[in-house]
Amino acid sequence: MAQSIEIAYYNTVILAGGPLVITPFTVGLFHVEESRIKGGFNDTKMDYGVKAYLTDEDYSTRRRSNAMIYSGIYNSKTKVNKTNEFPIGAAITRAVDLSNGSIQKLHAEDTNLNILQENKVSRALIDKDAIFTAEGQALSVSGSKVIGQVVAYQGKYGISKNPESFAHYGGRKYFVDKNRGVVCRLTRDGITPISMYGMKDFFKDNLALVGSNFSDDHIYGMYDENKDQYVVSLQNASINIGKKTSNTGIAISTDNTEFATLSYSEAVKGWTSFYSYKPTFGLSMSKKFYTFSERIIHEHYVGEYNKFYDTPYSDPSYIQLVFNDGPSSIKTFHTINYEGTTGWSMESFRAENVSKEGYTSNSQSEQAYKIPKNGVTIIDETGRGVNVGFELKESKYYKELMQRVPYAFTDTFHRGHINTTSGIKGYHAVAELQYWEPTTIVNEEKAELFAVSSEINISSK
Predict the structure, then answer these.
(1) Distance of alpha carbon 336 from alpha carbon 452, whole angstroms
(2) Three-state DSSP class for residue 194
(3) 43-67, pLDDT tens digit by residue?
(4) How far apart are alpha carbons 387 and 440 in whole angstroms?
(5) Pick from 38, 60, 82: which residue ends a domain?
(6) What is the dihedral of CA 246, 249, 253, 259, to 10 degrees?
(7) Domain end: 14, 45, 60, which one?
(8) 178 plus 298 within the same structural domain
């Protein structure tokens, strides 16, 4: 017959009563229980297996910013859900080098896991591991490890502390390394800094302005499947890209835009355009491109042109081109030609010339050389009308580049000079074309510019 024994007390020996301070360490409370119930000689003892225990009064979470951990499996067919299980006795963690900073982004791709740290990008095998031959070649084998061998990509590039800049499409991944002032593309061939394609200085200067610990500073990256472009938006109050604000005269004013949104195209291996919208995120679905303005989602490429987030922009569409074929040779630029929609004007054409003659004056009061859009005429000193705008011939618009003397346009917005002497001489030239039209342009009337060229002669001198 079972019998209950009343126990008056358990003997417990306190090794340290209260926090014991031993510089520079602080020791908490420690307890040890006796093996005998009442502590007497030959009294009833505890059974085998019970051991003394420690009480940790200062338990806290430990964060390993360079480590990954995975849980048990989830099987939707059998309804097995072990995602809340993290057994400490199992090998369920994998760490990367802490010297490369914290892990900011994980991206699963096929059977690999891309690991983006602040200063390094690596890949790890998923559900398999790698063994190496005597020559150092890796061989993939099946195994029980969820996260297998970690291999770093070549190049000292990372995603800094801007995981929001990451975007991917197909086998290409894009991200921004603010610490090094570059925009990178990751493929199977490795990491390529795509900011070097004509925009090296721009990104180096403007990424340095964007802080990583401020709520208003962000570097949003997104992929536009409609245009097949990577779109990145740098957002900081100090960013100024010189947005156009007026078409009265040639003088160009700027507006501190506080952001720079621009796109990169693989088709041309370069940065194709700046945009006038400031997104807070963006994504593509079914070849349609969407961005968010605060909490409101907007679809692009529908409705009116030059209109973002239901706000029409009166600023012009403009493009700046550099003619730099044979940069060491002095050339004479005779014409400017373009293929595209009627209505484009050439706001300026500047040639770098040794003698600084013609159109390279540094005087800000002197207006730059300009060609109006097709159909614009002026009245010369004899009262005769002269066509000074672009001329249409064989589906192309062209105009001669000439020296100048004063003239007056028939409208109040265009004043300048009569062109008399052909050609502008210089090593290279910079031309700017603009498109000024009403802001409500429907889809059938969109402005397009396909190609711009110039006829040149290389000087014999």
Answers:
(1) 7
(2) helix
(3) 777 666 655 556 666 767 778 899 9
(4) 28
(5) 60
(6) 40
(7) 60
(8) yes
